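Bumping with the actual sequence this time:
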Amino acid sequence: MDKLPYPNILFDLYGTLVDIRTDEDRPEAWAALARFYSYYGARYTPQALRAAYLAEADRQTAGRQSLRRDSHEAHPEIELAGVFRALFRAGGIEADQTLAVHAGQFFRVLTTDYLRLYDGVPAMLAALRAKGAKLYLVSNAQAIFTACEMRALGLEGAFDAVYLSSDYGCKKPDLRFFRLPLEEHRLDPARTIMVGNDPVCDAAGAKAAGLAALYVRSNLSPDGPPPDADFVLPEMDIPRMTAILTGQPVSPSRPARPGR
């Protein structure tokens, strides 16, 4: 078995392995969600429900400053099922956790335009597994959405462990979040690489934690210059990403640019 340059690989999810587009401002989504709540006796107008959702999410997020609020991340520093449950309570209904989760998942479906893997992701993960890599998912994401979306995309069971920010109350680039897989699995930072599409959350966060970083600019990457990363892919290219991670030569006609 060929020796891998980094036997421990931390992957971001959205914008790195998964392409997604969501729109939480869509009026018809709030109308449908308000109808869903009315089925259980919690009556809202679409406008009132949206205002109550934003106010409750902000209340639960208080004191946790976000670098940005991308809609596909959906308040990753809090457990969002609690927000949907609070909306039932404010409407005079005591909903259980299961109903709150289903309300959140229904809203996610209503606000998602598309959800798909980037081309070549399953083959890349299989190639890394075949070479003995340990794969971990470290994502700023909501558990009530992401577990189902991973199942729908065939990623269930693809990782040795999954770390979602909503489960831990912190998110990348917080060093506490990076330390979770490092400490729980006794990973050597010098033999671990973070792969992601965000220059601050993924690349800078990984470097601060003592890890190598592979940054890929995707359609979900924020605007700005490329980060100080060990490897920089100027566009989404899973075959080149696979070559870097497996230690194979990268095509000289389209080289991966070292980040420093």
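The tokens above came from a reply further down the thread. The first strand starts at residue 8 and ends at 11.
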